[in-house]
Specification:
This protein has 485 residues and is of the alpha/beta class. The protein has 14 helices and 26 strands.
């Protein structure tokens, strides 16, 4: 331990020896092998001048061992990792890389063209699919910034200004969070954790850090295997994970793919879900198919990671109309703040404010409206602003609107979230076009957005209107748009 608490590094992991660290895509990798290859990455970074606290981008076009090895290697060098979404356009990644001042980029071979397009002449380490350094190009540029070795990573969410919002995550908070999660789920060396989320998503930091900290096995799977319920079910049968942490939509499509009356593997003992509201009927269906599993509803913004939790009560579920977000985590004291700034001490509604080691600056105003019931349980009541969660991703509609308006023929744009019977929450865009020039089709507008934003930010549908509806005060009438199903 040090002044920042627990840290992930190759030397500590190597002590687990022949225990399996990674399994799934590619060869199984022991903790000793993971440590050896990660130390190679760390040595290459250090030799090229990367200092503790320098920011290093990490991108993987495939979910092979390169990504977790690169992660451990960068953290062993005490760098701050900036995960990059390989499915995003190069222009967006270039914005992230430049904005963070990344001095180096670690990537697998298939991501090389993307890295070249977004990284310029920065230091680039290419890994060979097994986590071994296969090549080094470029040099680490000088940056006008004091390195911060207390930051483990910088995650990016959708920003209200139209640009990605950078959120630094410190080691002190990750120490508290992973230690608590290991205790909550009783995670141990015999467990197998299915890696579901991408590293750009805070869920994935449980998959990697808590799993490695506990000496468990991280089960990796190709992205295409997560695309449908049927392919996901095939992976679960093959990898036999004991712990899975994902968004509700993941489990909904998994249950839909199960043959009638067939339960999930009895070895699946813990299911954690977060990122969006789990419809109560669909949760009941999951509970019925996972008779031996403990289920946890985890809640919190990226800035605090998980700050409240609730273990599903199977006996009470039949009578519940909605699922609580539960009670504050021990490491994340919470309070409700009224509109006038006063603290709501008993039952009532207010903004959720989080303190403790996982909160940025020690205190975080989440922007979430939360109600405390008479029994002390907390319930999510929506956002104070327009920020929403779709398929587990935090989305600022303003960023998508900015991308739509950047089209020369779009005069005005609005984006709302609508409920879809099968897909859950989805994005829908509305535009009013300029009378000049050839009008674009809805398909062309979706392509325009796809060339600028990550896939999860592309609206499922775009409707072209003569004019967008307005309220009596002249503001865009978003509720009216949401009613246009």
């Amino acid at each position: 331990m040090n002044d920042d608490g627990w840290r992930l590094d190759a030397a500590t992991l190597g002590a687990a020896g022949d225990a399996i660290a990674l399994e799934g895509v590619g060869e199984a990798l022991s903790y000793a092998a993971l440590a050896e290859r990660a130390e190679g990455v760390a040595a290459a970074l250090t030799a090229a001048g990367i200092r503790p606290g320098d920011r290093v981008g990490l991108v993987s076009a495939q979910r092979h061992h390169d990504e977790p090895v690169g992660l451990v290697g960068a953290l062993t060098a005490r760098a701050t990792v900036v995960p990059l979404d390989a499915s995003s356009p190069a222009a967006r990644l270039a914005t992230v890389v430049a904005g963070c001042g990344c001095r180096a980029l670690i990537h697998d071979g298939p991501a090389a063209p993307l890295v070249q397009a977004c990284g310029g002449d920065r230091l680039r380490l290419t890994l060979d699919g097994t986590g071994t350094v296969a090549g080094r190009e470029g040099t680490a540029p000088t940056v006008d910034r004091v390195p911060d070795p207390t930051a483990a990573c910088i995650l990016h969410t959708s920003g209200s200004t139209g640009a990605p919002k950078a959120i630094p995550i410190g080691w002190t908070g990750l120490d508290a969070f992973t230690g608590w999660m290991i205790e909550l789920t009783e995670l141990g060396a015999t467990d197998r954790v299915l890696r579901v989320a991408e590293l750009v998503f805070d869920l994935a930091w449980f998959d990697h850090l808590a799993t490695f900290r506990a000496g468990a096995t991280l089960c990796t799977t190709a992205r295409r295997q997560l695309a449908t319920g049927r392919s996901l079910l095939t992976e679960l049968r093959h990898l036999k994970p004991t712990v899975v942490y994902g968004v509700p939509a993941l489990f909904t499509k998994l249950v839909a793919a199960l043959p009638a009356d067939e339960p999930l593997d009895p070895g699946l003992r813990v299911i954690c879900f977060a990122g969006e509201v789990f419809p109560i009927d669909q949760l009941r269906a999951l509970v019925a198919r996972a008779p031996g599993a403990r289920l946890f509803n985890l809640f919190g913004p990226t800035e605090t990671n998980v700050c409240t939790f609730y273990e599903v009560d199977r006996a009470a579920l039949a009578q519940q109309h909605e699922l609580p977000i539960g009670r504050p985590c021990p490491h994340a004291p919470c309070e409700l703040q009224g509109a006038d700034g006063s603290i709501v001490s008993g039952p009532g509604i207010g903004e959720l404010v989080v303190t403790g080691p996982t909160a940025l600056g020690g205190r975080c105003h989440t922007g979430d409206r939360v109600e405390r019931s008479v029994d002390g349980l907390l319930y999510f009541r929506g956002r104070l602003d327009r920020l929403v969660k779709v398929q587990g991703y935090r989305v600022e509609p303003g960023e998508i609107e900015a991308a739509l308006v950047s089209h020369p023929q779009v005069q005005e744009a609005a984006v709302v979230v609508v409920d879809h019977s099968r897909l859950g929450k989805t994005l829908r865009g509305f535009v009013a076009l300029s009378p000049k020039g050839e009008p674009p089709t809805a398909r062309a507008l979706r392509q325009h957005v796809a060339e600028r934003l990550a896939p999860y930010l592309v609206p499922a549908a775009i409707t072209i209107l003569d004019a967008l509806p307005r309220t009596t005060t002249g503001k865009l009438d978003y509720p009216a748009l949401q009613r246009r199903q």
